[in-house]
Specification:
The protein is 47% helix and 15% strand. The chain is of the alpha+beta class. It has a 3-stranded antiparallel β-sheet with strand order 1-2-3, covered by helices on one side. It has a 3-stranded antiparallel β-sheet with strand order 8-9-10.
């Protein structure tokens, strides 16, 4: 009696799935199905995918194996009814013919990124369900760039294509064609590596080079622009039209609270609490990290809250970025500083010397808070507001190298 069994062999992970056809004493053929799976997801005793396994494309892979088994049985019975011999050549050709008409498992990089976003929306991290809107936006930006790459190259990029040739070619494309900075390109590479690691953990075959050290994200010291305490004093004296004054107030509040723009625009009276000896604080849960932070209310922020009878009128991040440049320009914050900005014609990022107002954006608030308090407060106090988990992260964020220990050593040595 004919029997068909699937099995895996070898130590490679993911490993190939093989098919064995036995029919009487003489017929014993084995051939690779061309499909692979992580060994922990395979039930070797029963010769099938483990019922406890959970990974992307599990149902699709089970259907393909079942279809392969059924068609092979039909082809075997058809050949027997025709009184033709079951040969190794017939077996190989039959499997090849079935596979050629098989709908392959979707191995597209972009599809996997989209599936990862969808899947992550139901996962829990740091006690919070799903990934933040900002993270989703970053992944969608990578998808947009990869689609451009596929359009130029006129081919779809699959997980198995992610070797070092792709890596170097994408770096060149992103830098020369898209005009991206090293940090922006590095974010794309980081996303690709995350997707490949996730695919591998779910039993999907990937190119091993995509998770190697050579396939590494680029990085460079970021050029960022901050508003000094003197700049903030100038802004407090600025008076313009209603929409500019509204943006000005948010800008000042942002620089004295260190909030990301998404959290900043959600602030309202419910975020104000009284702590200790009638000390007013702002308390919020950061949307990105799900970390709760308490921020003392600066005198300028207090003045704005009293003047407006609460927080200013919320606006979109795009309008905020646009209006604060106009506010800073009209307020005379125009000293020449080195920085980077996007060329409105080429849409490529350019490094140069510009008037400061041209470089101000929403993230300048958070950077300004950390920079203005560095070396005036302890790093721990700054981190309690910014939400950074380590001093290394905080120092990298403001582009500084820890130096407080130097004075401590000199004081100890009495030099």
């Amino acid at each position: 009696m004919a029997s068909i069994k699937f099995f895996i062999k070898g130590i490679k992970d993911p490993t190939m799935i093989y098919l064995r056809l036995r029919d009487g004493r003489k017929i014993d053929f084995t051939l690779s199905t061309g499909l692979s799976i992580r060994s922990k997801f395979w039930n070797s005793k029963e010769g099938k995918i483990s019922s406890r396994a959970s990974f992307q494309n599990k149902n699709e892979l089970e259907k393909i194996l079942k279809r392969l088994e059924n068609i092979l049985f039909d082809k075997r019975n058809e050949r027997i009814s025709e009184k033709k011999e079951l040969t190794k050549e017939w077996f190989v050709n039959t499997i090849s013919s079935i596979n050629s008409h098989q709908t392959p498992l979707n191995n597209s990089l972009i599809c996997h990124i989209q599936e990862y976003i969808t899947k992550s929306s139901t996962n829990y991290k740091n006690g919070k369900q799903g990934i933040s809107p900002g993270t989703i936006k970053n992944y969608n930006t990578s998808i947009y760039r990869l689609k451009k790459y596929e359009h130029i190259k006129k081919r779809k990029i699959n997980l198995l294509d992610l070797d070092l040739d792709f890596y170097h070619d994408y770096l060149k494309f992103a830098a020369e064609e898209l005009g991206l900075s090293a940090n922006s390109i590095g974010r794309d590479i980081k996303h690709i590596k995350t997707i490949c690691n996730d695919a591998r953990d779910n039993g999907i075959d990937i190119n091993p080079m995509s998770i190697s050290r050579k396939f590494r994200p680029l990085s460079e010291k970021a050029l960022f622009t901050t508003l000094t305490v003197k700049d903030l004093e100038i802004l407090m004296k600025f008076d313009g039209s209603d929409y500019l004054n509204n943006a000005r107030d948010w800008l000042v509040i942002g620089c004295w609270t260190g909030c990301r723009v998404g959290d900043l625009m959600k602030l309202n009276k419910d975020n104000i609490f009284i702590q200790g000896d009638n000390i007013n604080i702002i308390q919020l849960t950061q949307s990105k990290t799900n970390k709760q932070v308490k921020i003392p209310i600066h005198q300028d922020v207090s003045l704005i809250l009293k003047r407006s009878d609460g927080f200013p009128r919320p606006i979109s991040s795009s309008k905020f970025n646009k209006y604060i440049k106009e506010v800073c320009k009209k307020a005379g914050i125009n000293e020449l500083v080195k920085g980077s900005k996007q060329n409105p014609i080429t849409h490529k990022k350019e490094i140069g010397t510009f008037e400061k107002w041209e470089l101000i954006r929403s993230h300048s608030c958070r950077r300004s808070f950390a920079t203005n308090h560095y070396n005036k407060l302890s790093n721990k106090s700054i981190m309690a507001v910014t939400g950074h988990h380590t001093e290394h992260m905080m120092l990298s964020y403001i582009g500084e190298i820890e130096s407080e220990h130097i004075n401590e050593y000199l004081h100890l040595w009495k030099i």
